[in-house]
Structures are given as C-alpha cells and as structure tokens.
C-alpha cells in the first residue's frame, strides 16, 4: 500500500475515462489527463490499468490512434504513474458504487491517497466523494476545481 508523505506537494488523481474523447485533443478528458500530468501524479492499480488497456484495444479507437501509438501511450502512462496495490479482501467487503465494477476506481483512489477521481461515469459522479477523502469530479469541471485547490 502506498501512502503519501505530507511533505509531498504533488497532487494525486485517478482519471477513469473510457471513451474516445479522452484521446481527442482539446476535449475535457484529454485536458484533465494533461493537467494531471503537468501538476500532479496519475494513479493506477493493476485493476484500473487493465481496464484502460482492455478498452484502448477496442476497434473504436482505430480512428484516433494506431496500434503503435496505443502501445506508446500505455507505456508512457505506466512510467508516469504512481502504482497502488489493492487488497482484494477489503475490496470484496465494501461497496461504493451502484456498479460494482466501478469500485476498483474508488479503491485505487482511496488506497493511493488521491485528491480527486475524475470520471464521466454517472455511477461514480453520484458518489460526489468517497469516504469524505476523495472528490469525484467530471472531466468538464475538474481543471477549474483542481486549479482552485492550488
């Protein structure tokens, strides 16, 4: 389990974005990812990265990125990420979202001591906060709210 030192000034965020807008320059999901990379650290767990990887190989992304670009993107995300390890026992015990498949994002944010979880998923957005520790923001609102916190 990773815990953050209070002296660490990097903000941490987990971006749960599974749509093609995340790959289109200038869209809120892509702006959020770039903003996080410039002003903080991305978080992933094995489980959340596997979902990104699975989604990224879908044919709908063919018009946005070549296979080589997707491989490079996954490599770059992997290298620029703070990795957290989820405890499966706790993950199985406590539920947050109406969609149990979304809980891995909440758990990753909590275990990784994230400041924000950025998602366009209504099931996650309805949570607003997770355990009063992690703010859950839409991609459209995230840049302004993250800037406010600085």
In short:
The protein is 42% helix and 17% strand. It is built from seven helices and six strands, in the order βαβααβααβαββα. A six-stranded mixed beta sheet has the order 3-2-1-4-6-5, sandwiched between helices.
Estimated structural class: alpha/beta
- Which stretches are poorly predicted, pLDDT < 50 over at least 5 residues? 1-9
Overall geometry: globular
Average per-residue pLDDT, rounded, comes to: 79
Sheet-strand content, in percent, reads 15-25%
Elements, N to C (H/E): EHEHHEHHEHEEH
Widest sheet, order of strands: 3-2-1-4-6-5
Quote the distance from N terminus to C terminus: 26 Å
Task: Describe the largest sheet.
Answer: 6 strands, mixed
Helix segment tally:
7
Helicity, in percent?
40-55%
Number of strands: 6
From the alpha carbons, calculate the radius of gyration and give it in angstroms.
Answer: 15 Å
Written account of the structure:
This protein is of the alpha/beta class and 150 residues long. Helices cover 42% and strands 17% of the residues. It has seven helices and six strands, in the order E-H-E-H-H-E-H-H-E-H-E-E-H. The chain has a six-stranded mixed sheet with strand order 3-2-1-4-6-5, sandwiched between helices.
Feature tags:
150 residues; alpha/beta; 42% helix; globular; disordered N terminus
Strand and helix map with partners:
Layout: E1 11-16, H1 28-39, E2 40-45, H2 46-56, H3 67-79, E3 81-84, H4 88-93, H5 103-111, E4 116-119, H6 122-125, E5 129-130, E6 134-137, H7 142-149
Parallel strand pairs: 1-2, 1-4, 2-3, 4-6
Antiparallel strand pairs: 5-6
